[in-house]
Amino acid sequence: MDELMLDGNAVAGLLQEVFAVEMTTAIGTCGRCGTAGPVGAVHVYRGAGIVLRCPHCGNALAKIVKRDSQVWIDFTGTRTLEVSV
Amino acid sequence: MARTALLGRLTWQLAELVDIMAETPRVKTILLDVRGWPGHRAGQHVDVRLTAEDGYQAERSYSIASAPDGTRVALTIQKLEDGEVSPYLTDELRPGDKIELRGPIGGYFVWEPSRGGPLMLVAGGSGIVPLMAIIRTRAAAGDDTETRLLYSSRTQDDVIYRGELEQLSGNGLTVVHTLTDSQPPGWTSYARRVDAEMLAEVGPRPAEQPSFYACGPTPFVEAVAEALVQLGHETRAIKTERFGPTGG
Prior knowledge:
Chain A is mainly β. Chain A has one domain. Helix content of chain A is 9%, strand content 41%. Chain A contains one helix and eight strands. A five-stranded antiparallel sheet of chain A has the order 1-4-5-6-7, with no helix packed on it. In chain A, a hairpin with a 6-residue loop joins strand 5 and strand 6 (60-67). Chain A is globular and about 35 Å long. Chain B is of the alpha/beta class. Chain B has two domains: 3-105, Beta Barrel (Elongation Factor Tu (Ef-tu), domain 3), CATH 2.40.30; 113-243, Nucleotide-binding domain of ferredoxin-NADP reductase (FNR) module (Rossmann fold, 3-Layer(aba) Sandwich), CATH 3.40.50. Chain B has helices at residues 3-6, 86-92, 128-140, 162-168, 196-202, 218-230; strands spanning 13-24, 27-34, 45-51, 57-63, 72-78, 98-105, 119-124, 147-153, 173-179, 211-217, 238-243.
């Protein structure tokens, strides 16, 4: 267990800024283990960037780097994202 | 809830400080008036942004402490001595001053009276704040959902909202405190960290299909979530909100 670990709620503002919809209730499916769950429940690590990890297998679901007015998002680890629009 | 409330890009807006109240020696509540506030749900938070004269910006998230009340939003903030944002909010801000915020944010760690029960809230330190919004929203709605709060603080002086929690107890709400570091003379409640045994004694049984909301520092929330799963509760019934050692 890492004391620096947060959960998906911690990036709710950033994600809503990018997607313009509430994202913590969106359902993400892990690209490695296939577990599906709400974005609010993923594990979040903040460093130079932000890494979202699957709470089941630890796979990096997404990596986010924000610099000034640009946001760079790597979604390689996420199979699908189901969003209410 | 209305679909439109979910949509829309977040924008920064100015909020005016209306009042500031001391809760404990290290914790204050700031009451803000936010023009055009769309309302919020218990458990949501706001992002607060401070900008220095040289343009440097610091941004933090704070849970909303109040039940929905027009354009008024209360935030309860623990002052971190070496923090960039919290000392300003708790010590420098005066009524009439304006700060930038955006919100309400979040849809996962939220509760509404229609959710049903039983409800079990587990708070560590200032993790009580979003759970207090739940308790206040429940009370304001006249909701009598069976609700138990297990609230861990270091000492009695560190208990936030102590008087109000006492007042709101009853009508289906049970409040149980544990004081981990020191206890006043005659203390009869728990005097240790939250563990599986305590959760089993205070909380509902898995067969009652309770919903859990746990909020606090990361190690606290991890211990609570692990203990609940160990007691046979379903992972998806346990909603958590962790805050790290930084922040403030």
